[in-house]
Design brief:
- This is Transposase DDE domain-containing protein.
- By secondary structure, this protein is mainly α.
- It has one domain.
- Helices cover 59% and strands 0% of the residues.
- It has 4 helices and no strands.
- The longest helix has 17 residues.
- The model has no long low-confidence stretch (mean pLDDT 80).
Length: 69
Protein backbone atom coordinates (compact mmCIF):
# COMPACT_ATOMS: atom_id res chain seq x y z
CA UNK A 1 0.00 0.00 0.00
CA UNK A 2 1.36 3.39 -0.96
CA UNK A 3 1.33 5.52 2.21
CA UNK A 4 2.39 8.69 0.43
CA UNK A 5 -1.16 9.22 -0.80
CA UNK A 6 -2.64 9.50 2.69
CA UNK A 7 -2.15 12.78 4.59
CA UNK A 8 -0.69 12.37 8.05
CA UNK A 9 -1.81 15.58 9.74
CA UNK A 10 -4.38 18.32 9.45
CA UNK A 11 -1.78 20.64 7.99
CA UNK A 12 -1.74 18.62 4.81
CA UNK A 13 -5.45 19.28 4.22
CA UNK A 14 -5.80 22.60 2.37
CA UNK A 15 -9.53 22.84 3.18
CA UNK A 16 -8.89 23.15 6.95
CA UNK A 17 -7.29 26.54 6.50
CA UNK A 18 -10.16 28.33 4.76
CA UNK A 19 -13.09 25.96 5.17
CA UNK A 20 -13.95 26.68 8.81
CA UNK A 21 -16.99 28.88 9.39
CA UNK A 22 -17.35 29.71 13.08
CA UNK A 23 -21.02 30.76 12.94
CA UNK A 24 -22.02 27.65 10.99
CA UNK A 25 -20.12 25.39 13.38
CA UNK A 26 -21.74 27.07 16.41
CA UNK A 27 -25.23 26.42 15.04
CA UNK A 28 -24.40 22.83 14.14
CA UNK A 29 -22.96 22.19 17.59
CA UNK A 30 -26.13 23.51 19.26
CA UNK A 31 -28.32 21.22 17.14
CA UNK A 32 -26.13 18.17 17.84
CA UNK A 33 -26.19 18.83 21.59
CA UNK A 34 -29.99 19.22 21.51
CA UNK A 35 -30.43 15.90 19.73
CA UNK A 36 -28.05 14.25 22.20
CA UNK A 37 -30.14 15.54 25.10
CA UNK A 38 -33.30 14.18 23.48
CA UNK A 39 -31.68 10.77 23.05
CA UNK A 40 -31.17 10.58 26.81
CA UNK A 41 -34.87 9.66 26.96
CA UNK A 42 -35.01 5.92 26.52
CA UNK A 43 -38.37 6.00 24.80
CA UNK A 44 -37.05 8.31 22.08
CA UNK A 45 -33.70 6.57 21.63
CA UNK A 46 -35.27 3.16 21.00
CA UNK A 47 -38.40 4.51 19.26
CA UNK A 48 -40.99 2.44 21.08
CA UNK A 49 -43.87 4.19 19.32
CA UNK A 50 -44.97 2.65 16.06
CA UNK A 51 -46.87 5.64 14.70
CA UNK A 52 -44.97 8.72 13.56
CA UNK A 53 -47.52 11.05 15.16
CA UNK A 54 -47.03 9.45 18.59
CA UNK A 55 -43.26 9.58 18.20
CA UNK A 56 -43.37 13.27 17.28
CA UNK A 57 -45.63 13.95 20.26
CA UNK A 58 -43.12 12.31 22.57
CA UNK A 59 -40.33 14.41 21.08
CA UNK A 60 -42.32 17.58 21.79
CA UNK A 61 -43.06 16.42 25.32
CA UNK A 62 -39.44 15.50 26.07
CA UNK A 63 -38.19 18.81 24.63
CA UNK A 64 -40.67 20.75 26.76
CA UNK A 65 -39.52 18.99 29.93
CA UNK A 66 -35.83 19.40 29.13
CA UNK A 67 -35.98 23.13 28.56
CA UNK A 68 -38.45 23.83 31.35
CA UNK A 69 -36.91 26.47 33.67
Amino acid sequence: MNRERFPTSRQSYPCWKNGFNKALYKGRNAIERSICRLKDCRRLATRYDKLAANFLGNIYLAAAFMWWP
